[in-house]
Amino acid sequence: MAVTIRDVAQAAGVHISTVSRAFSGSHLVKAETRERVLAAAAELGYRPNQTARALTTGRTQNIGLIVADIANPFFPPLIKSAQSRARLCSYQVFVADTDEDPRAEEELLRTLARQVDGLVLVSPRLANEEIAALGGEVPLVLVNRRVPGLCAVLMDVAHGAALAVEHLAGLGHRRLLLAGGPRNSWTSAEMRRAAEAAAAGRGLEMTLFAPNSPTEQGGIAAARAVVEARATAVIAYNDLVAVGLIEGLDALGVAVPEEVSVVGIDDTVVGRLNRPRLTTVAMPTAAAGRAAVDLLIQAVEAKDADQATAETTLGTSLVVRDSTAPAPRPEPAADAPPAA
Q1: Which among 8, 64, 246, 286 has most CB atoms closer than 10 A?
Q2: Where are the transmembrane segments (predicted)?
Q3: Cα first-last separation, the chain
Q4: Contact 295/141 with Cβ under 8 angstroms?
C-alpha cells in the first residue's frame, strides 16, 4: 500500500501537521524535528503530492542553484547534497553555471527568478549592491558571501586560513605567499584578512598575489611570483590553484615540499589524487548545500524579517598530507666558517 503522511508522522513520533510543516520548510518546526521527519520519510519512501501542494500554495516547487564554475570539483558535492535535500522537501533544482562571469550571473539570476520560488547563489562574483537589488525580487540565499539583508551560509575559511598559517609557522616557515582568488570573492577577502593577521601575530612575512584566476592556470601563473618573493610556503585560494602551483613550480625546477610547501583550500578529490597529496583546508560543501536549501525554503515560508535574513556559519579544519614539510635550511654564506 502507498505510504501516507500518517505513516510518516507515526514513524517520526509527531503530529500530521508537523510533517506537513517540515516538508514546507516552515520556521515553526525545530531543525532536529525536521531532520527526524525527513529521515522517516526517506526510510518509508514517502513523497508528498506535489501537484496538490502547488495548487494550494501557488508555488512552482522549483528552486534555482547558481554556481561560479561547475567544472571546479568544489561545487559538485554541494550541488548533489542540495538536490537531495530539495527532493526530500518535494522541490526540484535547476542548476546553472556562470563561468566566473558577473554579467552571466546577473542574467541567470533575472531569468531564473521568473521560474522558481527562490534561488541559491554560490560564490557569487557580482558586487554586493547588485546582489542586494536582485534579492529584492526573489527569495535568495547566498553561499560564501555576506550581504546585509540576505540569508547566507558561510564556510569559516578565515579559521581555516589561520590554521594553515599556524601549521606552516610550526614547520619553521617565515616567508609566505598567499595566492588569492578573483575580484569580488568573499572567500579570497576572508582568507587574506585572516592569513595576514595570523602571519603578523607570528612575525612572518607575507606576500599577496591577487587577484588571480581560481583555476589550475591561475596556480601556474602564481609559481613565478613564489620564486621571486623567495617564499618557502604558499596558501592557495583553492585546490585547483594549489595543484597548478605545484605544476608551475616543478616546471621552474622547484620541488614541493622539499623547497616550497603548498596548502590548498577545499579538500576536493583533485587534491587527494595529486602527488604530492595536498595539505588543504576542508570545506563543508555538502553540509552547505543542505543548509542553503533549508534556509531558502524557510525564507520562502517566512512570516518575519528575522527568518528571511538568517545566517549559518559552518566550521572548517586543516587536513595535513604530503605537500607541506619543514622549511628548508638557508644555505650558508660562502665565507661562513664550517659547522663544528
Answers
A1: 246
A2: none
A3: 86
A4: yes
What is the rounded distance in angstroms from the CA atom of residue 43 to the CA atom of residue 26? 22
- Identify the CA nearest to 152 among candidates 330, 291, 54: 291
Q: Which of 62, 127, 68 is nearest to 97 (CA)?
A: 68
Nearest by Cα to 134 from 165, 102, 162, 158: 102
Domains and CATH numbers, the chain: 1-48 (1.10.260.40), 157-283 (3.40.50.2300)
Q: What SS3 class is residue 64?
A: strand
User: Which pLDDT tens digit goes with each residue over 189-227?
Assistant: 999 999 999 999 999 999 999 999 999 999 999 999 999
Please give the Cα distance from 56 to 334 (Å, whole number).
Answer: 83
Q: What is the rounded CA–CA span in Å between residue 261 and residue 279?
A: 9
Distance (Å, rounded) from C-alpha 59 to C-alpha 145? 27
All three cell numbers of 115, joined, read 521560474
Distance in angstroms (rounded) separating the CA atoms of residues 18 and 28:
9
